[in-house]
């Protein structure tokens, strides 16, 4: 799992490099947003953004 500041922008950027979102961008209460992304080598990584 990797932490970042703007998860939507990160996912958009990764898609331009061939990555695809696994499932959908999700939010846990008002605390975190997270997503799983599969890269071109089929490696799945987790992305998280702390809110507030």
Automatic annotation (TrEMBL):
Q: Which Gene3D superfamilies match?
A: 2,3-Dihydroxybiphenyl 1,2-Dioxygenase, domain 1
Among InterPro entries, the record links this protein to: Glyas_Bleomycin-R_OHBP_Dase
**Name of the protein this chain belongs to:** VOC domain-containing protein
Q: Which organism is it from?
A: Actinacidiphila rubida
